[in-house]
Amino acid sequence: MNLKELKDKKIVLFGKSRAFGMDEFLAQLKFHKIGLVSEFEDGVELIVEGKMMTPYEQKASDELYEKEFYRLKFIPIDVLEKELAKEIDENTLLMSLKLSHDKERLRNFIQNGAISDKLFFKLLKMYKWGGEDFFENDSNRDVSAAIILRFYKNIERNHNVQYATSGFIHLIAQTHSKELIEALLELEPLQNSANSKIKTLIAMRNDCDEKMQTALYNSMDESVLEALCRNENLSKNVLFKLLSIERYADDLAQHAKLDDELFERFLQNNPLELAKNGTLTQEMQERLIALDDKAINLSLASNENIGASVVKKLLSCGSFEIKSAIYKNPTTPVEMLKEAYKEKQNHISLAHNESTPSYILSAMADELDAEILKGLAKNPSTPIEVLYQLQLDSRFARAVKENPTFGRHIQQENIGWEV
Length: 419
Fold this sequence. Notes:
4 strands; elongated
């Protein structure tokens, strides 16, 4: 629809406005020179069906539809309000709100689901939280709910989530919008330590850029700093700030995206944790092995990004602990796992390994070793018929129910089991 076509014409609204408060709705219509009447009369061009229509209004709308079907247009209120929202002059609105300090009008616009995300974020920056938390007073609660309602996916499946801090936690976990994350991080309630869990989730996101990382670092919240250490895309500037705090060095050695400079630094001071780092190059792995340190080799054996040649060198060390770690490692070549199956001492490790061939996992189900059976119960690659067998044993029933493969199978088959 085109609002210009309604200029100097009349519309009928049955019910109430939805996205706009009624005063704001009338103001918008007046701005576009659109007349509003409550009953049909000469000059009416459009019938708008709003929310909360009374039985009388519904009957009147139905009668008009039957009588004036070919002449009149009937639209839901949402369509009209979206068009009104598109025509809002953002700069004029923002200046008006700034000069008037009308907090109620600002809150009403933030709650307006018809406005664009771009305008929503601008309005959100203007809102003053009064030093209180997201849900600590009615006004803050309305704004918090508006944020969650606008961006939360499938909110109809999670009723009332907009009225709890968990709503923000779920929202951060599911969103792919960097703009939303930046907007949330700037909110006054997130500057309070009480909301460190939300900041921690943001700190671990891969799209948390250097500007956000710096803001999070400046909070000096211990749990947030620990989360930053685990961010795969941690900027070097923030990384070196964290390195100045000794207790974070091990975490950084394990999780930082390595280059030659960082590798040399961690090799000297944190080699054990460095061996767990998933960004080690082949050359870096070789240098760690050259240290000939059993503890470092054990860490390296559990690293899911080690190369096949490094696996062979570690196996040649002859240590049972290292072999066990390698045979639990899902990146160990399948041919090596098949060869390892020939020795019974390797069966426990193989039972835990998702990459172990299914025929081997099935064969091990006949063994009586409780540790082997426990590994099979937890292993997502264990054949479903083996899991059915294991769940009958009270020792492994819980592990089987928590096994994602078993859970998916039960849901797909829909046979009424509790998982």
